[in-house]
Hints:
Order of helices and strands: EEEHEEHEHHHEHEHEEHHEEH
Strand content: 25-35%
Number of strands: 12
Number of domains: 1
Helix content: 25-40%
Shape: globular
Number of helices: 10
CATH architecture: 3-Layer(aba) Sandwich
CATH topology: Rossmann fold
Radius of gyration: 19 Å
Largest sheet: 6 strands, mixed
CATH class: Alpha Beta
CATH superfamily: P-loop containing nucleotide triphosphate hydrolases
Structural class: alpha/beta
Amino acid sequence: MSIITEPSQAPLVAQDLDLAYDNRQIVSDLNVAIPEGKFTVIVGPNACGKSTLLRALARLLPPAKGTVLLDGSNIAKLKTKQIARRLGLLPQSSIAPEGITVGELVSRGRHPHQSFLKQWTDADETAVLAALRATNTEILSSRLVDELSGGQRQRVWVAMVLAQETPLLLLDEPTTFLDVAFQIELLDLFSQLNNEHGHTLVAVLHDLNQACRYADEIIAMKNGAVIAQGAPSQIVTSELVHEVFGIECTVIDDPVTGAPMIVAGKPKKTFAERDASTRL
């Protein structure tokens, strides 16, 4: 079952996308619309095109064919600052400039709101402090980013994106390097941004149960194509999990949230068989 958001009602739309790296096609004729005011999670096996799609939606990867629309306008024709005021991106991996402190890095999230005539303001200061507090990194503000653990650095990058204060947030594997407690804390924060502040969020997650628990909408991908899109309760079935991930499972109600919860069995394919069937 696939439920597709009408493009006219979506702030971010991909139309007939072909995406490739070095002439190696990853995505073909993909159409997807991101629903406004929802927490959307993209799931799928490794190398299926999840992060590739996210990069295209953020204008980091120009499509070989097709168009990405941001608020109805071709994103390729918008100025960088226009995009940065509307859309924030947490990439899969980020490298901080050498010798930069946490506070300085998070402050860079305010760059889209500044200009030659409008320098640092009280609003900028408030946004940075709020982002540091939300990610529990305020105590790290004076420390060098290079000195932090992987989990601490990940929370600092999230703080920088939050400081940008955009209505749209794209998050590529935001829970990387975090232990389970911080994963839940961070996903709770994203859910709060969505529910209480109306942010539209799109995240790539590997944990299907976390996706079902937090997402309003799931986009399931395989081999560069969208297999299904819709609310977890409507599309997440044992048949879909088998089709996308190649594993047998039982889908039950999450005892805490009532969302679908996957109890996985053994995969039917070996690593080698799965790799052979996946577009690399």
